[in-house]
Amino acid sequence: MKELELKKLYEETDNSTVDYFMSKINSNAKINIDYENYLNDIEWIDIVELTLPYIDNILRSPNRFIVNEEEIVKIELARKITVDSIKHLSKHTNLIQEVDKNDDVRPSRILNVYKEESFDTYENKLIYTLIQNLKMFCAKKRKLVEENLKKDMRDEKKLTYIATSKMKNKDVAINMAISTALNMPENEKQRQRNSIISRIDKIEKKINELTFTDVYKELDKMNIRLIRPPIKKTNLILKNVNFQYATKLWDYIQDHLDNPEGPTAEHREYIDEGIIKQVADETFFMDYLAINTLNKEKNESDDQKMTKEEIVEYLLERLISMNADLTVEQIKELIGDKFEQIKYKKAATLQEIQAIFKKAMDEYMQKLA
To answer: Residue 358: inside a domain, yes or no?
Structure first.
């Protein structure tokens, strides 16, 4: 990969030059956003698609309970004589038709007890209500999506950047604008439209299949009363993973049923003080480095390096900004200590270089001899 020229320019620049230029920047980054995209309005589709298999699990293995049905019937219609039947007959002797010579009792009517399974539980009624709400919700969302699919999408962003800075005896200024606009081919738009409609079709088909399950048909035949929020937190609803997903969908529909969102949209204008402004400031400096090469000579470094006075001024500004309580004596002491350390370090480094160079020359001369 080819190395960027700006990267080389930046690497060849002293850090003090970068810091000085950036400290002198006075900039303004204005952002304009005009965004509207109906193809992004698919959150509800994702949520419904995720939850439908869990609702299907509930209806395939529904919660049920046993109901004891009691009925007094003619003896010949009795399905089974139970202990409860005998106890009831002993208390209601008027149901005895006769007692024969062997003391055998012949009742005319008897209590018949039989057990039946029922789907009429709170949890099942909750799922039944959820399906009713889901059908209404999907119908509203489909209508809204079909209306939005006819609209044009917009995704326009614009950055207007104005800034000034200083570099030694130069004033530097920039006035820049950059914009982007959506340019999606019509066939790609149509492909995405068809994908959304296809997903909605599959959702509605799956919901329709759920209405043919036994539990749904029985509750529908019973004309049960629909559940109203808030939901009762029964043990089954709290601990069963299928019901956990179902209640999340319930909450989502309750929040969005009356006010279904339209396409994702954003229309605003503001002054940025974050990452965009920071990047624009850095780009301003890189632009300065580029334009500064127009009259740059190899043996000249006035624009790349600051004078001693500028360096001292810049360092003092940074030092005081970090601790405004420093006295003149403390500053002199700090600078004096660092000066001695750096001077000694440079002297030691120079001696090391001289020793290495002398050793290499001696070895070379020995080889020649």
So the answer is: no
Domain that holds residue 48: 28-63+122-266
Reduced to 3 states (helix: H, G, I; strand: E, B; else coil), residue 194 is helix
Strand partners for 170: 167
Residue 292: CB partners within 8 Å, gap ≥ 6?
303, 304
What pTM was computed for the model? Answer: 0.55
> Which of residues 214, 247, 266 is at a domain's end?
266
CB-CB contact of 22 with 285 (8 Å): yes
DSSP line for 229-277 = SSPP--HHHHH-HHHHHHHHHHHHHHHHSSS---SEEEEEEEEE-SHHH
What is the residue-averaged pLDDT of the chain?
79
Query: Are residues 239 and 149 part of one domain?
Result: yes
- Tokens standing for residue 341: 């350390």
Which helix (H) or strand (E) covers residue 178, if one does? Answer: strand 170-180
Comparing 212 with 169, the larger pLDDT belongs to: 212
Neighbours of 312 (CB within 10 A): 12
**3-state class of 35 per DSSP?**
strand
DSSP code at position 93: G
Residues in contact with 165: Cβ distance below 8 Å, sequence separation at least 6, in sequence order: 21, 22, 24, 25, 26, 172, 173, 284, 285, 288
75: closest CA among 110, 123, 117, 29?
Answer: 110
pLDDT in tens, 157-169: 999 999 999 987 8
Average pLDDT over residues 225-237: 90
User: Quick check: 153 and 37 in contact, CB under 8 A?
Assistant: yes
Q: Clarify whether residues 173 and 240 are in a common domain.
A: yes
Structural domains of the chain, count: 2
CA distance linking residue 35 with residue 26, whole number of Å: 30
210 near 59, Cβ under 8 Å? yes
Percent helix, strand, coil in the chain, to 5, is: 55, 20, 25
Phi, psi for 256 (deg, rounded to 5): -120, 0
- Residue 175 tokens read as 């006035």
Peptide bond into 229 cis (omega under 30): no
CA angle 264/269/271 to nearest 5° reads: 130
